[in-house]
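Appendix B. Raw example, untouched.
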Amino acid sequence: MYVAPDYVEPDLDEVTRLIEAQPFATLVTDQPDLRIAHVPVQVRRDDGLEIVAHVAALDPFAESIRQRARILISVLGPSVYVSPAWYATRGLPTYNFVAIELRGQAVPLDDPDAVRAHLTRLVKDHEETLNPSDPDARWRGDEWARDRTNELLPELQAFTLRVDQVTAKVKLGQNRTEADRASTMAALHDSPRSDHQAVEGLMRARYDDQGRMR
């Protein structure tokens, strides 16, 4: 993925937050041939980035994992069309968006306890996102759910991937004037669309109300 210098996001903490906000990813490998999968992922931070995920054991992608193939993981964050009508100055139509690519070698995760822990944390992360302020509303697995999960473990191929290359493109009006950024945020704010509001939130984390870099 080509990234112009204005749009490079070098902060791994911010990359982690962006992935956690949009954790459904596309996996691509060409080992032994071109294969693709779409799965939820977990991101872990230690000295760098590590991804934990799983595919169906019958998926051809599982063979690539067992062969410890190199994998490209693509995560697309919020995106919106930006109309020139929103600008304070003249301009052309464009998109504001987030796109992240991670690369590394797959390592099969075959220990049942480790796979179970991965699934438990994956569900916990999503339930917390659904109900951030109401823990009692979160789903919790009962005995039946635990037994059913154990039955399904052999049907999964989990893996970890230690990320050795990160390419993060965050295009949020960095090439526009402060006035253009301010008016774009105002237009997104007035929209009822959730994708517009998501991009507005990302922009306001970077710019003040006048469009100046924070």
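End of appendix B.
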